[in-house]
């Protein structure tokens, strides 16, 4: 695909610390993703709760960026948001001009997802929820939906952020959800402006 496109659509991947946002962007991007991942240090251990993400050695400190060409004229730009609370101030800027968002969830730490969902609802940004597979017991979708108090219209899917095919299915679900939402006359009828970080 060429380096330019007529239409760019921005998608943000959000969620708690260590849920696989960077991994998802890496797995689906057609270009080598831009990562702002830094090595975690002992100093950060007093700030970030790493008990549930043992073995994690790096963390996103600004955002991840990837790209997927849909065709010669249309491109998805993917932005992975940092998950730690100390970087949440960046989220409002990342949400600006966003077509939609993926809330990536680790069902072992479901409470870490609340903030992302609340912020997206406040912004009026269409989103889906994707439960990342960490190899543990699978929680039933109905239990996850109830725990997150999700609107029945919000799609809930399972995924493996390491798998390109699984990541693509997540993005397809999001794009279909956005399309359905804007086709509904009671929803917003104006697409977000093309504005990037």
The helix fraction, in percent, is: 25-40%
Largest sheet: 6 strands, mixed
- What would CATH call the homologous superfamily? P-loop containing nucleotide triphosphate hydrolases
Low-confidence stretches: 189-197
Mean pLDDT figure: 79
CATH architecture: 3-Layer(aba) Sandwich
Class by helix and strand content? Answer: alpha/beta
Strand order of the largest sheet: 4-5-1-6-7-8
The tally of helices reads 6
Number of strands: 8
Q: Could you say what the CATH topology is called?
A: Rossmann fold
What is the overall silhouette?
Answer: globular
* Assembly state (oligomeric): single chain
Q: Kindly provide the radius of gyration, computed on alpha-carbon positions and rounded to a whole number of angstroms.
A: 16 Å
Would you state the CATH class? Alpha Beta
Q: Ends: how far apart?
A: 23 Å
SSE series: EHEHEEEHEHEHEH
What is the total domain count?
Answer: 1
* Percentage of residues in strands: 15-25%
Pfam family, one: ATP_bind_1
GO molecular function: ATP binding; GTP binding; hydrolase activity
InterPro entries: Gliding_Motility_GTPase, Gpn, P-loop_NTPase
Protein name: ATP-binding protein
Chain-wise SSE layout:
Blueprint: E1 7-15, H1 21-28, E2 37-39, H2 42-45, E3 58-60, E4 64-69, E5 74-80, H3 91-95, E6 98-105, H4 114-123, E7 127-132, H5 141-148, E8 156-159, H6 164-183
What would you note in describing this structure?
- Belongs to the GPN-loop GTPase family.
- Keywords: ATP-binding, GTP-binding, Hydrolase, Nucleotide-binding.
- This is ATP-binding protein.
- This protein has a single domain, classed as P-loop containing nucleotide triphosphate hydrolases (Rossmann fold), CATH 3.40.50.300.
- 28% of the residues lie in helices and 23% in strands.
- It has helices at residues 21-28, 42-45, 91-95, 114-123, 141-148, 164-183, and strands at 7-15, 37-39, 58-60, 64-69, 74-80, 98-105, 127-132, 156-159.
- The strands form 2 sheets. A 6-stranded mixed β-sheet has the order 4-5-1-6-7-8, with helices on both faces. A two-stranded antiparallel sheet has the order 2-3.
- Helix 1 crosses helix 6 (164-183).
- The chain is globular.
- The two termini are 23 Å apart.
- Mean pLDDT is 79; it is low at 189-197.
């Amino acid at each position: 695909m060429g380096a330019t496109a007529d239409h760019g659509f921005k998608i943000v991947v959000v969620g708690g610390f260590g849920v696989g946002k960077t991994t998802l962007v890496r797995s689906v991007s057609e270009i080598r993703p831009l990562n702002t991942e830094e090595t975690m240090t002992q100093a950060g251990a007093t700030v970030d709760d790493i008990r549930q993400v043992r073995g994690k050695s790096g963390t996103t400190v600004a955002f991840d960026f990837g790209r997927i060409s849909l065709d010669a004229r249309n491109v998805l730009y993917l932005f992975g948001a940092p998950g730690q609370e100390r970087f949440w101030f960046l989220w409002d800027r990342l949400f600006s001009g966003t077509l939609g968002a993926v809330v990536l969830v680790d069902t072992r730490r479901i409470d870490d997802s609340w903030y992302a969902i609340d912020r997206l609802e406040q912004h009026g940004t269409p989103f889906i929820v994707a439960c990342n597979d960490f190899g543990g017991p699978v929680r039933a979708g109905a239990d996850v939906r109830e725990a997150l108090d999700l609107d029945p219209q919000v799609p809930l899917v399972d995924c493996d952020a390491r798998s390109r095919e699984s990541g693509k299915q997540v993005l397809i679900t999001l794009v279909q959800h956005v399309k359905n939402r804007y086709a509904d006359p009671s929803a917003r009828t104006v697409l977000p402006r093309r504005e990037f970080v």
